[in-house]
Amino acid sequence: MSFASLGLPTSILDAVTAKGYTTPSPIQMEAIPAVLAGRDVMAAAQTGTGKTAGFTLPILARLSEGKLARPNQARALVLTPTRELAAQVGESVATYGKNLPLRSTVVFGGVKINPQMMALRGGADIVVATPGRLLDLQRSMQIKLDKVQFLVVDEADRMLDLGFSDDLAEINQLTIQRQQTMMFSAT
Ligand code: AMP
User: Fold this and answer.
1) Looking at the whole model, is its pTM more than 0.90?
2) Strand partners of residue 43
3) Can you tell me which atom of ligand 1 is nearest the CA of 19?
4) Of 20, 88, 121, 146, whose CA is between 20 and 30 Å from 71?
């Protein structure tokens, strides 16, 4: 099976080809058509399986069909348990979305909040975030979550291990209007 047969637009296929991928991984073969079709996805997937592209590619495709984010808005939200993973996912989003007019940003704790506020000011089509810092930004009205259409919870099991369950419940409520949810867990 090829990436081209999964239903992704050319702008995204070009970025995948530039990255040197020729064949979708098993999780990508399952997740990409499902997300493009508007379905929720729950998958057991470890790091190294290609899960990041599995959710990022179809979300980029869906986002490229709608209106761009307005100031301080997010249209897709990817939650990760650690800042390292957030940074990594943010880089993947930038790489796979390089031919699209979408904006993405990464927010996590342990660093100054001001540059993150500045980055959110113009709006971001995809925000990759750790839960605590995201909620800080939401409470100070630097990010509005009521237009989020896609929510991804990456490494959901680790998120619970790290004590983020209350934060996740709150983010779930704040994005309850969303169209689709994707959950990935190693176990
Ligand atoms: P992930 O499981 O998302 O952390 O991805 C693991 C690694 O596999 C990353 O370095 C990706 O760049 C790479 N990768 C993802 N999808 C593919 C693919 N279809 N073919 C080859 N490499 C891939």
Assistant:
1) yes
2) 184
3) 12
4) 88
